[in-house]
Specification:
The protein has 354 residues and is an alpha+beta fold. It contains eight helices and nine strands. The strands form three sheets. A five-stranded mixed sheet has the order 4-6-7-9-8. The protein has three domains: 97 residues, no CATH class; 72 residues, Signal transduction histidine kinase, dimerisation/phosphotransfer (DHp) domain (Helix Hairpins), CATH 1.10.287; 146 residues, 2-Layer Sandwich (Heat Shock Protein 90). Helix 4 runs parallel beside helix 8, helix 5 packs parallel to helix 6 and helix 6 packs antiparallel against helix 8. The relative contact order is 0.07.
């Protein structure tokens, strides 16, 4: 925003201080003059009089008053300038930090010393904002790098398959077509997942009344054939869990959690438990599964994009590595909380509160 040059805040504060000091001096001298004008001290007593001062007395009082006001003006200007500079010193550091952040340096912190006051609260809030912004930018950079890598992989495979087919006319066309179809499906799934993630991050969706228990039943019914294929038992229980949000996004959230619980399970006879309910006026969805033992360090990284949890058992149907990242974004977009906890017996417990 372009602005015309103006008077500095320090100068305006200085003039304000000086004005207050001079005004106080004028009031004080006026009160003194009134006292001398109407009250005379004689023999230690104060008496009321209508006595008028001679002109000489008034003329001698005027220069003294003017000199006193001049001294007060100098004191007000110099003292006000020093005080304003001292008081506004934190703003200088805030301004410098803002300029550095505007130039792309998010690692800088103000760290204003001293006891808590308005300026230090502002500096601490600004430091917190910079820390969150720096973490967000770093996450976005990692996401962009990982997304580029993930998108490049199916394209490179497709190119390699086409090159081989071009140089080997005897190669079976059906096999090539099937492999290309598989690779292309993966690229489509990844693109749709990225679009869904972007939609959740931008919060560009309408809100309706939704029952999480119905979404849980729908997701379980849809994924039941996949669970049977992997030998996983699904148990869905719970009460009505009303929430306000996008039915499409919330259904995707439940689908991702149930799919994740099925795919990353025990090699044989695993279990998945899906529960819904209300706790402290918040809709709660909990998805648990059996599986390998997970460390808290591994669990803490699972919501990051393209983190598939290498310590988990299954490798087929691993998806594109955005399942829990999408769940996290959808939950945050709905003002909810997502909690991941490793189970003592092995596996994962995921709780969503909306």
């Amino acid at each position: 925003m372009t602005r015309r040059p103006g008077t500095s805040v320090r100068l305006r504060l200085t003039l304000s201080y000086a004005g207050v000091v001079v005004l106080a001096g004028v009031v004080l001298l006026a009160a003194l003059w009134v006292s001398l004008r109407y009250f005379l001290v004689r023999n230690g007593l104060i008496i009321t009089t209508t006595y008028s001062f001679p002109d000489g007395v008034l003329l001698s009082f005027a220069p003294v008053a003017a000199a006193a006001l001049g001294v007060l003006l100098v004191i007000g200007l110099s003292g006000g300038w020093l005080l304003a500079g001292r008081m506004l010193a934190p703003l200088t550091r805030l301004t410098e930090a803002t300029r550095l952040a505007g130039d792309g340096s998010l690692a800088h912190r103000i760290r204003l010393p001293g006891r808590r006051d308005e300026f230090r609260d502002l500096a601490d809030a600004f430091d917190t904002m910079l820390a969150r912004l720096e973490a967000h930018v770093a996450a976005q950079r990692r996401f962009a790098a990982n997304a580029s890598h993930e998108l490049r992989t199916p394209l490179a495979i497709t190119q390699a398959l086409l090159d081989v087919a071009r140089h080997d006319p005897e190669r079976a066309g059906d096999v090539l077509v099937e492999r290309l179809r598989t690779v292309n499906s993966r690229a489509i799934d990844l693109t749709e997942a990225l679009l869904l993630l972007s939609r959740a991050d931008q919060r560009s969706f309408g809100r309706e009344h939704v029952d999480l228990s119905l979404l849980a039943e729908e997701a379980t019914e849809t994924l039941l054939p996949l669970a049977d294929k992997h030998g996983v038992d699904i148990e869905t229980t719970g009460d009505v869990a009303p929430a306000l949000g996008s039915p499409t996004l919330l259904l995707q959230l439940v689908d991702n959690l149930v799919l994740n619980a099925i795919v990353h399970n025990l090699p044989d006879r695993g279990s998945v438990w899906v529960r819904t309910g209300v706790d402290s006026e918040r809709a709660v969805l909990t998805v648990e599964n059996t599986g390998a033992r997970l460390t808290p360090e591994v669990v803490a990284t699972l919501v990051e994009p393209f983190q598939r949890g290498t310590e988990r058992v299954r490798t087929d149907h691993a998806g594109v590595g955005l399942g829990l990242a999408i769940v996290s974004s959808i939950t945050e977009a709905h003002g909810g909380t997502l909690t991941l906890t490793p189970r003592d017996e092995g596996g994962l417990r995921v709780t969503v509160r909306l």
